[in-house]
Every structure is written in structure tokens, then in C-alpha cells.
Amino acid sequence: MKRLINKNSRPLIWLMLMTASIMAFSCNKWDDLTSPNESSVYMAQSGERGELHFYRIDSVQEFYFGASVGGFNGAPQNMNVSFEVDPSLVSTFNTDHSYLNYNFVELPDSSYTISGLESTIDKGVSDSKALKVSVMVNKLDPYTDYVLPIKIKSISAGNLDTTMSVSYFFIDSLYIRSRTVSGTLTVSNENSGGANAKEGSVRLNDNDYSTKFLYNYVDNSWMQLKLDAPAKLNAYELTSGNDADDRDPKNWQFLGSNDGSNWTVLDEHTDYKFYNRSQTIRFEYNDPSGEQYQYYRLLIQKNNGSNLFQMTEWTLLQYY
């Protein structure tokens, strides 16, 4: 004889079954859960996870590295981890990425410091105490790709995951943020109509690319900006005139001073040619000394042969 079950009782039966399952599962302590990677030590930034986003500025920039332990329960005991920088891995990194035309070189020793190469993963914790690398970006060539391979050298306990024991910290570009630095303009030679004339000196840095500064040219004439306070710059921009390329600068020096009399050459160009009219060119320079100057001067030693000189815009730039 079949047993009859009231259809209305079925939801109650399902609820009882689910409650029993939850109670059975809750009898297993969380600490009893294990993972195949339990006590396996590795670098979380292994492989290509070490891309560094650094800015092209003079201040020191930092990144951190360390080790981690796999599993649910953290380190079963205090685990000491030793690291080392391994320059021999640079060629390996380039070979493994040859299809991308990588040509990285080792980050120069003189451009960084490391807070240490020893750390500890404390018992019950999953990550070691972080170690810091401080990089002096102004000592790097902005057009070179750099890599710093750091690997786990040894561990005091657990199992080392050799597939994730190396981190490649690499720089394949330096990011630029720039701001315009303003100052009080003076010039050695003024437009015949005066500073406020249609082509007077005030047009040189008015941020209007439809105007220009024009004057009767003589060799070694100059234009100068005095800042409110000394500042370290990273670049300047020149914009050629709208016509007559024989009025363009050909040879010049970019100078810095703190008294308006004694000058330091920061950048210079010879036989330079602007290939287009109203063309803006950025000239970057690297001064590792980090010196700040209050006066900046553009000394025009030669133009392209005209008895006139012209320039649309001269802008000072600071990276931050």
C-alpha cells in the first residue's frame, strides 16, 4: 500500500533537509579546511605583474615587494624569506618576450635603494612584511626600458613555488604631467613699436598662438623670465613663427641663474631647424643636480640669416 504524502508538507520536508545539511557542515571547523597550496610560498607580483607606473619627476618614487603563503590558514609558523636581485634574469625576460621586441636593461644600481632583502611571514598571516624599493627616476634615461628581477632565494619552512618565485619589476615608459611656469618677462631687444605693440614682447608668452614677437635681430640677443621663487624645470617649448623661416632661431642656449648675472647652461642646440610654420617643439633636459633657478634665459646666438627674429611662443614647463 502506497503511503500518501500531503503535497502541502513538501516545502516543510525540504526545509528540514536543508537545515540538517547546514548543521552537518557547521560541525567542520573553518580551521580544518585545507588547500592544495597550503604552506606554498610565492611572490604575488610574479611574472608580468610588476609593471611600474612612474612619473618623470625629480622626487624619489617607491614600490614594494614581498612573499605570500597559499592556503586558508596562513603560515603554520613564522616563515623567514630571503630575496635577491638576479641580473642574469634580464636576458631571460627579454627572450621570453622577444615577440614584443622588448629590449630591457637592468635597473642601474645607482638609481635605487632597497630597504632590505629579508622578511618574515608571521604565523597565521598570509603575507610577509613589505620591503621597499626607492627609485631616483631622474637618474634614468627616459628612452630606455628597465627591469629589476627580484626572486625568492630561500625560505625557512614550507614549500617554494618555483613557478611564482620571481618578480620582474619593469619600467617601459615614464609618465608625464606638466604645468606651465610663469614669470616676469624682459628682453634684450624690443619690437620697434614697444612691448605692447602688435608684435611686441608681451606676445611671446601670452598663450595665444596667433600672435608673435618680432624684433630687429642681433647675435646673442635674449629673452628672460624671472619667477616669483626658484623652481626646478624639466622642459621648455618654442613655437616657430607663422612665416619667413629665415627668422627662426638656429643656435641657442637655455640658461638658469639665481642672481641674473651668473648663468648655468641647461640646454643648447646648434643648426636646429623647424620644419613647419607655427610648429611647437618641446625641449626636455635632465639636470640630476636638481638645482632650482629663479631666472631662466633663452640666448639666441644665431638665427637663420634674416635681419629680423620672430617667435610665436616660449613656454617653461615643470613636471610633477
Automatic annotation (TrEMBL):
SUPFAM superfamilies in UniProt: Galactose-binding domain-like
Domain named F5/8 type C: residues: 169-298
Pfam families: BT_3987-like_N, F5_F8_type_C
Entries under InterPro entries matching the protein: BT_3987-like_N, FA58C, Galactose-bd-like_sf
Keywords on record: Signal
Top-rank taxon: Bacteria
Record keyword Metal-binding present: no
Gene3D superfamilies recorded: Galactose-binding domain-like (2.60.120.260), hypothetical protein (bacova_03559) (2.60.40.1740)
Signal peptide region: 1-26
Keyword hit for Coiled coil: no
Protein name as catalogued: F5/8 type C domain-containing protein
